[in-house]
Amino acid sequence: MGIELTDDEHLRALAALEAVVGNNDDALTVLAGGAGERPLPALLAAYGQHTLHRILISAFGIDATTDYDETGRLVAEINSDPMARIVFLLTDALHNQAELAGDDPATAKRIARSILLAIDAFTDADNHDALTLLRALRNEVLGV
Predict the structure, then answer these.
(1) ∠31-32-33 over CA atoms, to 5°?
(2) Which helix (H) or strand (E) holds 40?
(3) pLDDT tens digits, residue range 50-97?
(4) CB neighbour list of residue 105: distance below 8 Å, 6 or more residues apart
(5) CB atoms within 10 A of CB 102
(6) 1, pLDDT greater than 50
């Protein structure tokens, strides 16, 4: 599935996405992180990859109950699907953009917008729906 994220990183990424939805640049500045933390652009790229891959897996019907053979068949289907390939290309581009950005908050905002647009492409969510989805994702991390 790619880069592992801690619960704290999930929560920080979700807060950054909410800040972008709310056009709150001050919150993004606070979320930029400090010593020992992953720069926000890199964190958002990793979070975007994690989330978009989860959406793909779900869209193709893979879950915890899918048996090994069916999972293999569905993964092969994902790998040959043009939309899935676009998602893989997008997440790679987000990582490349983040690598060049360092800790630039403007780039973090652009990466966050790309993630939100990609989620919208799958879910057809508007800003209000996006906030509801982000809250649900936060509750999942918190075990609520």
Answers:
(1) 90
(2) helix 40-59
(3) 999 988 898 899 999 999 999 999 999 999 999 899 999 999 999 999
(4) 25, 28, 29, 32, 40
(5) 11
(6) no
Helices H, strands E: what count in the chain? 7, 0
The number of beta carbons lying within 10 Å of the beta carbon of residue 65 is 6
Helices 105-123/82-101 angle, 10° precision: 170
Exposure string of 73-93, with b = 16+ CB inside 10 Å and e = fewer, is eeeeebeeeeebeebeebbee
Count other C-beta atoms under 10 Å from residue 23's C-beta.
10
CB 32 within 8 A of CB 103: yes
In this structure, what token pair is assigned to residue 45? 């790229």
Running DSSP on this structure, what letter comes out for residue 140?
H
Contact 17, 116 (CB under 8 A): yes
Structure tokens at 57: 């897996």
pTM for the predicted model, two decimal places: 0.88
| Amino acid found at 141 | V
Q: Is 144 exposed, middle or buried (0-12, 13-18, 19+ CB in 10 A)?
A: exposed
Residue written as token pair 């092969």: 76
For the chain, the average pLDDT equals: 90
